[in-house]
Amino acid sequence: MSPTQTVAPTREELVRRASSLVPLLRERSGWIDDNRRLPDDVIRAFEDSGLLRMRVPTQYGGFESDARTLIDVHAEIARGDGSAAFCISVWSLINWLVGRFPDEVQDEVFATPNVRVCGNISATGTATPVDGGYVYNGRWRFSSGVLHSHWVFAAAMLDSPDGQSVPMTALIPASEIEIVDDWHVTGLRGTGSVTTVAKDLFVPAAHVVAQSDLFSPQSQSRANAAKPIYEVPLLVTSTAATAGQTIGAAKYAMESFLERLPGRKITYTYYQSQREAPITHFKVGEAALLTEEAEARAHRFAEMVERKAKINEPWSEADRIYSRVQLGRIAQLAERAVNILASASGASSIYEDVPIQRIQRNLHAMAMHALTLPDTNIELYGRSLCGLEPNTPFL
Question: Can you give the pTM of this predicted structure?
Fold first, then answer.
C-alpha cells in the first residue's frame, strides 16, 4: 500500500471532537443500556469524528496519537456513556496492536476505512498447525465491541505434535466468527461483550503471530519497527487506552449530581436544601479531589510514557509493574469518587432515568476487569517493593 500523508489533529482538537459527542451519547445512553450494544448513529458519529483513527499507523491515514491524547479523549467519551468509551478504548488498543503485525496483514486490515478491531489476550482456544496456516477452535468471552468490529483478535494455545504449548494470536475477519448472544450483565451492557466461537476455522499463517512476539519489543512490521509508539509494551499501551474512561465516568457523576442538586431536600431531616447541608459539601469536595488525583496520576503516567519513548529508553520490569498499578489506582480513585456521589444522591437515584446508577454500574464493571482490578495490581506493586518476583507474566 502506498503511504498516505496524514496531518494528525492536535490533542486539543481531538478532545474537542470527543466533547462534541457527549450530548448524543447521553441522549442514547438509555437505548445503549437496554439494547446491549451501540446504536448505528453513535458508530457513524465515531467514524465522522476521526477518533477511530487515533491509533492507526500514519501510512494508512491514522494519527498515531500519544498516550495523553488517548487518556483525555477517552475520558470525554466516558462523560457521555461508559459503554461507548469502553468500546472505543478497545478499538484504540487493538488497532495499535495490529500495527505490530506483518505489513502485508496491515495492508489488508487497514484497507477498511475506520476499521475496528477487537479482541483479548486470553488464550481460550486451540490452534492446530496445518498446511498454510492453523485451524482455530475455541470460545472467547468478553468480546467487547465485536458487534461493530471488522476483525477479531483471538488467542489460542498451539496444539502441536511436538508438544509445544504456547499462545498464538490471530487476526480473523469478524464475519467468520460465530456470535453467542450471552451478554446479560449489570454493567457495561452496551459494549455487547458477547462470547465469540471458532469451529474448525482456517486462519492463514500470515495472520497468526506468537503472543510472545507481541509482548516483545521486536515488531513484526518493517514499516512501524522504528516508530517509538510501537516500542511501548502492550500492557503499558493498555493502561493508556483504559485509564481515561474511569476518569470520565467520575466527571460525569459529578456533573449529574450537581445538575440534580438545586431544589432537592434531604428527606426526613430539617434540611430543605441538600445544597446547604455540610455533609453535601464534604462529599462533593472529597469526590472532586479523588477525581482530580486520578486525572493527575494518569497525566503523570502519560508523561512517563512519552518521555521514555522520546529517548528510546527500554521498559524495565519495574516500569511495567508501575504501569499496571497506575491503572488499578486510577480506577480505584475514580470508583471511590462515584460511590461517594451515589451515596449522596438519594433513593430517587435508583430510577433508570437517573444517570448516577448507570455510571456506578459501568465503572464497577470497568474496575473488575482482570487487568484493571485495583487489589491485584496493588498486590503486584507491593510484591515488587518487597523484593519478590512478580506473580504474573502479564507485564
Answer: 0.95
Q: Cα–Cα distance between 321 and 235 in angstroms, integer? A: 10
Q: How far is residue 313 CA from its own chain's centroid? A: 25
CATH architecture for the domain at 11-113: Orthogonal Bundle (1.10)
What's the rounded Cα separation, in Å, for the pair 181 and 165?
Answer: 30
Domain 117-215 has CATH 2.40.110.10: yes
* Domain assignments of the chain as residue spans, ordered by start: 11-113, 117-215, 232-385
Residue with cell 432537592: 264
Read off the pLDDT of residues 13-56 as tens digits, 9 standing for 90 and up.
999 999 999 999 999 999 999 999 999 999 999 999 999 999 99
Q: Which of 15, 49, 53, 46 is nearest to 28 (CA)?
A: 46
Q: pLDDT at residue 204 above 90?
A: yes
User: Cell for 393?
Assistant: 507474566
Per-residue H/E/C for the chain: CCCCCCCCCCHHHHHHHHHHCHHHHHHHHHHHHHHCCCCHHHHHHHHHHCHHHCCCCHHHCCCCCCHHHHHHHHHHHHCCCHHHHHHHHHHHHHHHHHCCCCHHHHHHHCCCCCCCEEEEEEEEEEEEEECCEEEEEEEECCCCCHHHCCEEEEEEEECCCCCCCCEEEEEEEHHHCEEECCCCCCCCHHHCCCEEEEEEEEEEHHHEEEHHHHHCCCCCCCCCCCCHHHCCCHHHHHHHHHHHHHHHHHHHHHHHHHHHCCCCCCCCCCCCCHHHCHHHHHHHHHHHHHHHHHHHHHHHHHHHHHHHHHCCCCCCHHHHHHHHHHHHHHHHHHHHHHHHHHHCCCHHHHCCCCHHHHHHHHHHHHHCCCCCCHHHHHHHHHHHHCCCCCCCCCC
- Any residues with CB less than 8 A from the CB of 328 and at least 6 apart, and which? 372, 373, 374, 375, 376, 377, 378
For residues 363 and 341, what is the distance between their CA atoms, to the nearest angstrom?
Answer: 13
pLDDT of residue 225: 87
Provide φ and ψ at 184, rounded to 5°: -120, 95
Domain boundaries 232-385, corresponding CATH code? 1.20.140.10
